[in-house]
Write a structure and sequence with these properties.
Number of strands: 12
Strand order of the largest sheet: 2-8-7-6-5-3-4
Distance between the termini: 41 Å
Largest sheet: 7 strands, mixed
Shape: globular
Bound molecules: pyridoxal-5'-phosphate
Helix content: 40-55%
Structural class: alpha/beta
Radius of gyration: 22 Å
């Protein structure tokens, strides 16, 4: 058996989406910017349908959705797009994705102040700190709505309220939240939001930026050319990708409660199996306010890189966020919630998705348990040999 348990890094593509992307590539190759013929009109029509579907899943109006190549681009479009805004101060939490951290550091390089808001040991933003820091005029607050490593969901209502009260624009990175938790950006009073297709069973290379009418006017594009996406994101649209993204959103909107139930059941099953078999095991992140499917596991005495490496051909697991795992660097998120280096090294992430089955989870649990026990007993043997 081979079990993919890295659904926070990326998800398999829904077969219905594969079919739609394939059909569009084969039959609907027009450029939506070609306004003088039927091929272009049809491509534009497909893009508009997808825009409605994408808007639907986040409770937005289609006119406020801009297509990009993924969440990283959407995030950069917002943060760097504010480089000429009047208030030269941005804030973000200490557990953001690198796209937010590095884009904000780039603003810092050109004269902005960057404020990093601490989180609790469960990964919740300190609302007290937020309230205080926003008293200093701040152009933008960027918050990861659901964390990609530890799964914690933030108190978005309170964060939005604090921003409104202090006249700060709010950007939510909802990449890990979309399709897992009902979301209404309009009701939440968010100014910007970023998300991506490949985290929700859609194709890679396509994502969306949500911006309200007023907020969009403040953005200076970071990419210039043909003026697509109302001039905010020039470049020919990835129509097959957009069609797939739209369908992935539509499917999730229709099937979310059923998927959530399935993914929660598998998450609980795996958590219970591991807890029963591995003494001292603990789970990072908020135990209540969290997304389904994510488990950030710590097994004392087990080096997570060793565990992941031993299982790599059979089970996909990861030690830090997907983009960091190549560098084997310690996780800035685990560091921000106060874990020691040792504890970080004993932590790893499991990401369960809608296409995992109960049989897969049972099998993966056995493998993780036996491999962890072997690593611990190898260590004990080495230690006792040293004593002799
Ligand atoms: N934000 C979060 C929370 C993520 O998990 C990711 C992907 O790892 C990104 C942003 C970047 O998304 P993309 O791969 O679409 O650029």
């Amino acid at each position: 058996m081979k079990v993919y348990l890295d659904n926070q890094a990326t998800t398999p593509v829904d077969p219905r989406v594969v079919e739609a992307v394939h059909r569009t590539m084969k039959e609907e190759f027009g450029n939506p910017a070609s306004t003088l013929h039927a091929w272009g009109w049809r491509a534009e029509e497909l893009t508009n349908i997808a825009r409605e579907q994408v808007a639907g899943i986040v409770g937005a109006s289609p006119k406020n959705i801009y297509f990009t190549c993924g969440a990283t681009e959407s995030i950069n479009t917002v943060i760097l797009g504010l480089r000429e805004a009047p208030i030269k101060r941005v804030a973000h939490s200490s557990i953001e994705h690198k796209a937010v951290t590095y884009a904000s550091k780039e603003l810092e390089r050109v004269g902005f102040t960057r404020e990093v808001i601490p989180v609790s040991s469960l990964g919740n933003i300190s609302l007290e700190y937020l309230e205080t820091t926003l008293k200093t005029p701040t152009q933008l607050l960027s918050v990861i709505a659901a964390n990609n490593e530890i799964g914690t969901i933030q108190d978005l209502q309170s964060i939005s309220k604090a921003c409104k009260k202090n006249g700060t624009l709010l950007h939510l990175d909802v990449t890990q939240m979309v399709g897992k938790v009902p979301l209404n950006l309009r009701e939440l009073g968010v100014d910007f939001a970023s998300f991506s297709s490949h985290k929700i069973y859609g194709p890679k290379g396509v994502g969306a930026l949500f911006a309200t009418d007023d907020a969009a006017k403040l953005l200076r594009p970071i990419q210039f050319g043909g003026g697509q996406e109302s001039g905010l994101r020039s470049g020919t649209l990835n129509v097959p990708g957009i069609v797939g993204f739209g369908l992935a959103c539509k499917i999730l909107q229709e099937e979310m409660s059923e998927i959530d139930e399935h993914v929660w059941a598998l998450t609980k099953l795996l958590k219970n199996r591991l807890t029963d078999a591995l003494p001292g095991i603990s789970f990072n992140g908020d135990p209540e306010k969290r997304i389904p499917g994510n488990l950030n596991v710590r097994i004392p005495g087990v080096d997570s890189n060793r565990l992941i490496g031993s299982l790599a051909l059979d089970i996909a697991l990861t030690a830090a966020s997907a983009c960091l795992s190549k560098t084997a660097a310690a996780s800035s998120v685990l560091e921000a919630i106060g874990l020691s280096e040792q504890t970080q090294r004993e932590s790893f992430r499991i990401g369960i998705g809608r296409f995992n089955t109960r049989a897969e989870i049972e099998w993966a649990a056995d493998k993780i348990i036996t491999t962890s026990k072997k690593i611990t007993s190898d260590k004990l043997t080495i230690a006792s040999n040293h004593l002799i």
